[in-house]
Amino acid sequence: MKETTFESAFAIIKALVDDFKAGEKHYLSKDYQEAEARKDFIDKFFIALGWDVHHNEQKNPYEQEVKVEKGVNVSGAQKRADYSFSLAPNYRDPKFFVEAKKPAQDLYDEDYYFQTVRYGWHKATPLAVLTDFEEFHILDCRYSPNISTILSRKVKRYHYSEYADKEKFAEIYWLFSREAVVNNSLEKRAEELPKPRGKAVQKALFALEKHQTIDDAFLEEIDDMREKLAKAFKKNDEDLTSEELTEATQRTIDRLVFIRFLEDKLIEQEHYVDKFGEKGKAWDGFTAVCKRFDAKYNGIVFKKSFIDGDKFKGPDDGEFHSICQDICHLNSRFLYNEIPIHILGSIYERFLGKVVHATDKRVKVEEKPEVRKAGGVYYTPKYIVDYIVQNTVGKLIDGKTPQQISSMRFADIACGSGSFLIGVFDCLLVYLGKYYQEHPDKAKKDGCHLTQEGVWVLSIKQKQNILRNNIYGVDIDAQAVEVTQLSLSLKMLEDETTATANEMNVLFHEKILPDMSKNIVCGNSLIGTDILTGNLFAGDEERKLNPMDFEHTFPEVFRNKTDKRVLNLPDDIGDEEGLRQAKEPMVKYEHKTKGGFDAIVGNPPYLRIDEDRPEFDYVRRKFTTTEFKVDIYTLFIEKAIKELGFKRFGFIIPNTLMTNLTDRKLRKLILEKTHIDEIINYRTRVFDQAVVHTMILILDKDVNNKIINVKEISADKTDVFMIKQEDLLKNENNSFDIRMFGKDSSVLRKIKSRGIQLDKLCDLRQAIKTGDDKKYILNKKIKKNYKEVIGGSEMNRYTLHWEGRFVDYGDYLACPRDPHIFEVDEKLIIRETGKRITATYDNEKYYLMSSVYSAFLLQSVKNYNLKFILGSLNSNASQYYMQKLCFDNSSGAFVKARIFHYNQLPIPQINFQNKTEKEQHDKLVQLVEQMLEAKKQLQNAKTDTDKTYYENKCNALDRQIDNLVYELYGLTEEEIKIVERK
After folding, report:
1. Helices 242-264 & 317-327, crossing angle to 10 degrees?
2. Residue 682 counted as domain residue
3. Among 190, 206, 222, where does a domain finish?
4. Where are the beta strands (DSSP E) in 875-948?
5. For residue range 472-501, what is the model confidence (pLDDT) as tens digits?
């Protein structure tokens, strides 16, 4: 892009102001049209701000930051904003919109404001511009638009005369110039705008508006629609079951959404939804259109269902008509053509987490049991999807021809609503679009269309072939499979028009949507049809498990392949054609390979299969990497590595995989059978509502390349480094201990090398789980077996304060534990949760609740004093080590440190034959004893003077303990600064 400066922009704008002023009478007349205003002034305004509005530089139509619409109106409603501005390389993610009008019109208009804000809100852009050049209105698009309060969305309003004022123009320039937008000017400005918090929600500005993103708002709408529909169906037919109601409401909503999408995309120029009920019953009108669309479009959405049958009574017609009126183009606040398909996927992902539950009289929408267990539905953010897809599918197709790509297979084997498959489809469309633009002869030959703007675009036929040949998905939930097919269908039609759709339907006599029933299927990726022999499960359980074999479901993917290669051919000539055209002998060879997917991507469920589940024993036998517990996401990884034949693999999964003892066999499998291309460890939350911390794992089968690229992403920084895969194989339990290789890893390695693991000195045990605190925890001792009990809230570093509680100790407790772990002569109590290590000393034989761990010396340990270990645990050095191991100060999460984390923690190793080291050991014990006593005195202090004195004493002892532990580890001053983050 050409360099634009504020001064050069200001000079151009001043000239435009002079031109407008000179011809103001003409420009403000009714005869001067919007198209003229755009050409004469608005285009030039944004060119001056550094944007390539006329595409003088960005000639590739797939890589243009400014999209300019011609202004298509249907039934008086404009379907797209006039200008959309983005930044390379994210050309499909707008940063802001501009809506243009002719100068004769008054911009301070409810309809104009509503129209402009709606564009921005749908695409999650915080600000938008409404302008006719005479005026320039900046509008707040962060909240759901409401026509009654829409005029309050004005952030700033400028008259064209103010553009010539340097200070006023600077406000516009440093917000909307390309230079400013690159530096996140819009996001920064949006942060400064008022937010509806607390009482502010009641103020006029936000009284009728909802602080909702487009996905939250649309989810609320279809959730409400589902409940109304379910009640309307039940009202007309009390015999409908929960399953029938769930499917009926799902299918009806899918169809209504799809029809509204076709209307707003202009693929269908007639509006249907608002007319349901004009002639006869609304439901009859709806089913008649669905029948017609099934013949035209195909796909699962309009496929004949039990709701289309004569025996199905349908919903109460008055209520169904009301629902249709609420969502029709005349009344809906949503532009269905502007809801990004990936956002629609996120909406449906959460929508699928609920089912309709019906009794004889009532209907209720409630969460599925597995969703309740998981704590909700967590949709993968688009930036994660894009990264994984680009680094798997993107790398595999790079440099390949369309012919070569046509035989490649990409899968998500736990596809949910299809977010990753939408990402794969989009990746293929973008790549092939660029390829054909660069190879016009090939584009014409392969059936692409040439637009009036000179852009080669893929035909519907080509997109159909991509969906049928390249993209595969599996999910155990039939509703999810339907939504995936719906989402892919919408994505396929995203850039189509009435003309291209009709051409497919009329000229080629083919249905517009491909049949994806053979490559997007409902089944269980983990459980095969071998369970059908031997009556392993009861009929209803077997049906729920929905077994599936990949080889039989996708025979074209898993049959053995003969891979033909012809050397030294031009990139744009396929193998067979190249052989025919070749004037010189070519080298040809064949290589037989086992079938399978080229890439597997996704976000598998993070659920544990409990021992009481019927499939538990089956899974433990079938999957060899499971140990102690069964986490579903680990089974998906093992399945992919052993059976699905991928070339590249990309999952987002819990980062506990890197160190969990229970995953050691899986790590060994990964290290021995694949190359870890990349690990991205997130020390911030990827999923807003989930406590789980995650990582991206990218694998390939290129065993010759054994360098792992690692990124550690925190709230304020990203550390990038590389690891040799062979180094991870040397780790105990094959741990992916990336801490030992990143920034400041020399400090960690030194602590580890000079320490002895805690589990070599102490036995750490989980404490009591009662199952019901109120029932078994009492404030007085009634029987002999009532034991004094301590929980996490009653301890802190070096302190213990028993609150007088007793546990009714017996075998009926959920996990009673061995009394020995509490009744040892001395033990350490370590808190399970927190953002730092919290440990104290106990010689009173307290019993412990599950929020703390018990640690006592192993019988084989003779010389170490438990108080020495306590001082080390509470030191800054141990905190730094544990911080890197599991705590995350940057995320705000209340993290659990597991026993296996503590077991790995180094304690300074002492050679008791060495006089100096023995003295250091004893000195630390002495300091800890002083600290324990000082903490007691601080707890008992009553006057401010005493409190201040003992606080200072404790702080001084803390520093002495830290310094002695640093000395024991041999840390230098620079290394101590790293530990203390100075």
Report:
1. 40
2. no
3. 206
4. 895-896, 906-908
5. 999 998 888 988 988 898 888 887 777 666
Say what the pLDDT of residue 507 is: 46
Any idea what the CATH number is for the domain that residue 93 is in? 3.90.1570.30
The pLDDT tens digits for 291-303 are 989 888 876 788 8
Residues 141 and 242 in one domain: no
Measured at the alpha carbon of residue 72, what is the angle toward residues 68 and 77, in degrees to the nearest 5?
Answer: 120
Give yes or no: residues 166 and 223 share one domain: no
Higher pLDDT, 595 or 30: 30
Q: Residue with structure tokens 């021995």?
A: 672
The pLDDT score that the predictor gives to residue 808 is: 78
Q: Is residue 721 part of a domain?
A: no
* pLDDT of res. 212: 67
Give the tens place of pLDDT for each residue, 870-922.
999 999 999 998 887 765 433 444 467 778 788 889 999 999 999 999 999 99
**Residues near 255 by Cβ (< 8 Å), separated by ≥ 6?**
286, 290, 301, 302
Residue 547 is classified by DSSP as B
- For residue range 792-813, list pLDDT tens digits in order: 889 999 999 998 888 877 656 6
Is 17 within the bounds of a domain?
yes
Candidates 107, 98, 25, 32; CA nearest to 67 is: 98
How many Cα atoms are found within 13 Å in the side-chain-facing hemisphere of 297? Answer: 25
Q: What letter represents residue 414's amino acid?
A: A
Q: What is the pLDDT of residue 836?
A: 85
- Cis, peptide link before residue 89, omega less than 30° from 0: yes
Domain identity same for 237 and 187: no
- Residue 722 is which amino acid? M
- Please state, in angstroms and rounded to a whole number, the distance separating the CA atoms of residues 679 and 263: 44
Distance, in Å, from the CA atom of 235 to the CA atom of 323, rounded to the nearest integer, reads 15
846 inside domain: yes
**Burial of 20 per CB tally in 10 Å (0-12, 13-18, 19+):** buried
Q: Are residues 932 and 846 located together in one domain of the fold?
A: yes
Domain count, the chain: 4
Question: Taking a C-beta distance cutoff of 8 angstroms, is the pair 376, 687 a contact?
Answer: no
From its phi and psi, is residue 629 left (phi > 0), alpha (psi between -120 and 50) or beta?
beta
The whole-angstrom separation of Cα 153 and Cα 120 is 12
Domain that holds residue 199: 6-206
Q: Indicate whether 316 pLDDT > 70.
A: yes
Considering 180, 206, 232, which residue would you say is the last residue of a domain? 206
Based on the domain organization, do 232 and 365 belong to the same domain? yes
Identify whether residues 348 and 236 lie together within a single domain: yes
* 596 phi/psi in degrees, rounded to 5: 150, 180
| Predicted model pTM | 0.75
Cβ–Cβ under 8 Å, residues 97 and 123: yes
Structure tokens at 749: 């390695």
* Residue 331: how many other CB atoms lie within 10 Å: 11
CA distance 652 to 679: 10
Q: Tokens representing 64? A: 């243009």
Q: Is 545 helix (H, G, I), strand (E, B) or coil?
A: helix
Which of 100-109, 224-233, 358-367, 651-660 is least confident? 358-367
Positive or negative torsion for Cα 509, 511, 516, 517: negative
Based on the fold, state whether residues 195 and 308 are members of the same structural domain. no
d(CA 184, CA 178): 10
One domain for residues 927 and 966: yes
- Look at residue 443 and give its three-state secondary structure: helix
Q: Is the per-residue pLDDT at 62 higher than 50?
A: yes
Nearest residue to 270 (alpha-carbon basis) of 259, 257, 284: 259
155, 140 in Cβ contact below 8 A? yes
Structure tokens at 442: 């090939």
User: Helices 242-264 and 214-236 sit at what angle, rounded to 10 degrees?
Assistant: 130
- Residue 387 tokens read as 């990264």
CATH number where 862 lies: 3.90.220.10
Of 55-59, 247-251, 626-630, 969-973, the range with the highest mean pLDDT is 969-973
- Asked whether 104 and 28 are in contact (CB, 8 A), the reply is yes
